Amino acid sequence: SASSDMTDKADNTTREETTATPGVDTEKKEETAAKKKDDTDQDEDGELDSDGGSHKGDGDSDHEDEVLREDVFRAKMLKSRENLGKDHELTIKRTLRLVSCLIAQYKLNETDELLDAVYPVCKELGGSLYIKCIQSRAFNKFKQYKFRDALEIFKEQATHVGPSAALYENMAHTYNSLGDYENAASFFSQAMALLDAGSFGKKGGILLGLGLVRERQGKVEEALPILQDALFHYKKDHGNEDGTSLIAKASMSVGQCFEKLGRLEEAEGHIRNARDIFKRAVGDRSPLTANSLGVLGRILYAQGKREEAEPMLLESLDLEVEKDAFHADTVWRLMNSLKEMWTEGGIKVELPVLQAKCRKYEPVLAKCSQRIVDLKLDQEGPHPGFKVDEGTVAVIYKTAGELCMLGGNYKDAQMYIRKAVTLLERIKDFDCSVLTQSCVSSLQFMGKQSE
Prior knowledge:
By secondary structure, the chain is an all-alpha fold. The protein has helices at residues 27-34, 63-84, 89-104, 108-125, 127-143, 147-161, 165-177, 181-196, 203-216, 220-238, 245-260, 264-281, 287-302, 306-322, 328-343, 351-359, 362-374, 390-406, 410-426, 433-450. It has 20 helices and no strands. Helix 3 (89-104) runs antiparallel to helix 4, helix 9 runs antiparallel to helix 10 and helix 14 (306-322) packs antiparallel against helix 15.
């Protein structure tokens, strides 16, 4: 199935400020500014299913197999284009097979280009090719966090094919990601009834969705046994304990539920297992691997395992900055976790050690800044292609500046913080004065140190 990584919100409690970094007591203001967007657009959740079965790459094949499949499908598509033309039915079929493989690997930008190219012909031909095309488009929109667009396409699909357990599950996951828990629960329940009546679908996926709805509603203790049941069904369906990324996704949900209940050792075990599966099944650079590393780093840090947590958070940040569906809120939370690691909790680190640690972050901070520029996210919005706004980008720059300041790199720190101020000053529908003053204090502090 066209699967989705789940990125839970971190618990950003403000702790005691250190004297080394002016303005680090503004995390709550930063979090609020970073969320000054449509708050119903939650992070990507759940496990989308295909009416025709699972997409390869989210099932039993490993990452190397998937790369080989992509090469084969691409070669066949290009051969058909050359011999039969780009609009021939066989070329379209081969393009859609390649699209399915790309979606499974989160190669979302190329997927958009291919679907845009074949959509007019698929619509003209109609039938199963058109259904496959719009279904793939919905999956891709979902993975790009464009949940409203995905939902509208799933609704169109329903007008063509009628109700099915798999389609209603997809719609339910999308409602859940939009924060519409009433419709999510309703469609999951309808999907289960259709499944019991013989419609194609996966019980594990429906149970996973029902558990996630409960968790999102704050009913974590109710959610846990449902999510554990989902994990059981995925293991039962696939005949092994750790062979598929579907099992890993269910393990992620169970682990994060344990995290919310404060059962951190159990959470760590599930997330470690999920990370190991993702690395085998989808590779070291997949967004699924990135998410598992970030969650594992967060849980390790919460247990005081700072030295083990830090490289995982840094690796997760590096992968998140690179992925096609740039998710600014996740990027900021990872940056903020790295900053908190050295500024909160009463930690005492010698200045040369602290600077050496934080200087390791500079390449990924520079890469993030360049990505923001390339995507034009630092320019006045709106930015319909991304789940982002100026408040989120501003606190990314602010946090990047503070990390550079901790590393003693005042030149880059001043550059990032000035960019943050520019963005904060553009925001008119939210009081950013505390954040702006924190930036000004940091600039003044660095100015005095440079005298």
